Amino acid sequence: MTLSKKLGEWYEKEKRDLPWRKSSNPYNIWLSEIILQQTRVAQGLNYYLNFIEKFPDIFSLANADTEEVLKLWQGLGYYSRARNLHETARTIAFNMKGIFPQNYPGLLKLKGIGDYTAAAIASISFGKPVAAIDGNVKRVVSRLFAIEDEVNSTRGKDLIKTFSYEILDVSNPGRHNQAMMELGANICLPSKPKCMECPISQYCLALKENKVAELPLKYKKASPRNRYFTYLIIKKGNRILLKKRDKGDIWEGLYEFPLIENIQETSPSELASKIAGFLNVSDSQLNITKISETVIHKLSHQHISCRFIHLNFPGDFEISAGTGIEITTDEFEKFPVPRLIERYIDNKGL
DNA sequence: GACACGTGGCT
DNA sequence: TAGCCAAGTGT
């Protein structure tokens, strides 16, 4: 029996019952693939269900507001996925009559669909013989063939791709690709892989050479940089200020409170005069009601130390252009916000 | 081709 | 705990 046959039979028997596996409809597959990019099934599952419920097809998604899409995406991270999801929904709905491109190169042209996702949709929805190579597959293949090049090096990636196509089951590429990923997710784990339960262990060179624990090799990422945020929760009765984040930094398109960013940790007393300057009022006009403890928020590439400062609107202060928009506290929950802000408000209230 | 881009769970 | 990892893509 061949590797792909063993793998396929194992998959049929052991695969998890996941909602996007109930259909090969490209809309469902596409949506699930975008949600699951760099995201665990456990984390993305509810988002998928919420999206399918609110936007059951490409047209309902295309006709939504981007902000509505971002709100539903809130908390999932990598928000460009949501913006690109919406843009691509509109492209398909309005320029392609709601019909997905049915092959790899066609899919690859769409925003938010790269090598992996194009291959996943082409194989799962349309049966095209293309290898979908994600983090799981890289690990599985690097061990299967005992690849000594770093999997994030050019040569390593080349080898992974070559070997992936070598073992691709062209008679059922969709099943094969999902089986490879399922194996990586449940058996061929990063640490302490369950080689005893692996359906293709007999083909595994790393196991044979006792190298499973060392593979895959990988270059390390740079360590995150530190940032220091101070959010101003400026209240005027039941009204507060909110500001939309710009392009070119984290959380593009999400909302936040007016922000003062410092180069380094700054004490509350130093902050007071910065705030006064920011608001263009004198220190004595400031009516600070509360200063939060420092909240640490870790991103993959940034560590943010953040403080929230609550203050009442200085009496004669007028909002200058660019400071933000004024909303009522009731409206707050309708705006997409970063997890850092969502969590703080959930805990402390507005 | 290297780096930016979130969040949460696991070791 | 600090770092790694997760169904990657865009620039």
Brief characterization of the structure:
The chain has 350 residues and is an alpha+beta fold. The chain has helices at residues 3-14, 26-36, 41-54, 58-62, 66-73, 80-95, 104-108, 115-126, 135-144, 154-167, 173-186, 205-208, 268-279, 339-348; strands at 225-236, 239-244, 255-256, 259-262, 287-291, 295-298, 302-312, 325-328.
Notes on the structure:
This protein is an alpha+beta fold. The protein has 14 helices and 8 strands. It folds into 2 domains: 3-208, Endonuclease III, domain 1; 225-348, Nucleoside Triphosphate Pyrophosphohydrolase (Alpha-Beta Complex), CATH 3.90.79.10. 42% of the residues lie in helices and 14% in strands. Strands 1, 2, 3, 4, 5, 6, 7 and 8 form an 8-stranded mixed β-sheet that branches. Helix 1 crosses helix 11, helix 5 (66-73) packs across helix 6 and helix 9 (135-144) packs across helix 11 (173-186). The radius of gyration is 25 Å and the shape is elongated. The protein starts with a helix and ends with a helix. The structure holds a DNA duplex (11 and 11 nucleotides).
